[in-house]
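[Q] Does anyone have a clean structure-token version of this?
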Amino acid sequence: MEIINLKTKTSDYDITIGENLLGSVLKHIKMPFDKAFIVTDQNVADLYLERLTENFKSKSVFCHIVKPGEKSKCLKTVSGIYDDFIENKISKSDLIIAFGGGVVGDITGFCAATILRGVNYIQIPTTMLSMLDSSIGGKCGVNAKQGKNLIGIIYQPKGVICDVALLKSLPKIELSGGVSEAIKCGFIKNPQILKFIEKQDLYNTIVECVKVKKEIVQEDEFENNIRMLLNFGHSFGHAVEKLGDYKKFSHGQAVAIGMVLAVKLGIKLKITKPEILQTLLNLLNKFELSTICPYTIEQMKEVIASDKKVRSGKINFIFIKDIGTAEIKPIGLNEISLEDKI
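[A] Here you go.
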């Protein structure tokens, strides 16, 4: 088991990574609380909710189950959670638990931050992507019809508990989505991660990715500077998700395409070494991740124009200079130019 402490100006919490932690969750919750309010989706509930609730036999537990998938990441879902929590008399002395993948983690964190102007919450991620990325650092929120993650807040959890044993029940496509985000960490900061990915060593891949995110979030909690590096592949990736109506591509698949496009653009702008593209493609192909974008650059730019990172007509874009070294460069939308049908 590995315990990684993340400390910012607003928070101080542990990220616990190990095997078979679900039966001992209370040991890893570091604050007192009265009632537990669990948010999960139907898929996770069917597999694991009973095991989780067994931890709270001495306390009142309320569960809210949402539909699986990106479509649930909306204000309508949040409104339903608010209603359920308030009807069950939630108070600031209670604990909210996000039990699921990135969608559940994002909407639960948003609810925790805004109900009663803030209630403590923890993350128990159940996918590889959420374990190594979305459960850490406090970003939470929902999508708008114009684009992804346009409504949100940074609100840190009081702890993150990653039970790697839960990954055994994941379908291959969900694991590959986590691999996509892990590749991102390797390319922006720590090339050693790519070696763990090659060996299919999930535990050490997650641990090293968490260390990358911890280091970046501690230095820049509110994404004023280097935290933007974690967006490598995401500006294009979010556009791919939106154009596919959040059905055609999973987040991980969309980010894989986004990284390919970002590297191609970096090569065109003479920022990225040309040989990096093949290294990226080899890794993505090995894990059957998408590398070809079915949309035109003009379609992509129309969506990117609504990206929350756009400022004064420019977007802070993440380019790879060399594997393990990335840079943030503001570019105008007119500078985003690649061959049609990228």
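[Q] Thanks! Anything notable?
[A] Residues 172-335 form a domain with the Dehydroquinate synthase-like, alpha domain fold (CATH 1.20.1090.10).
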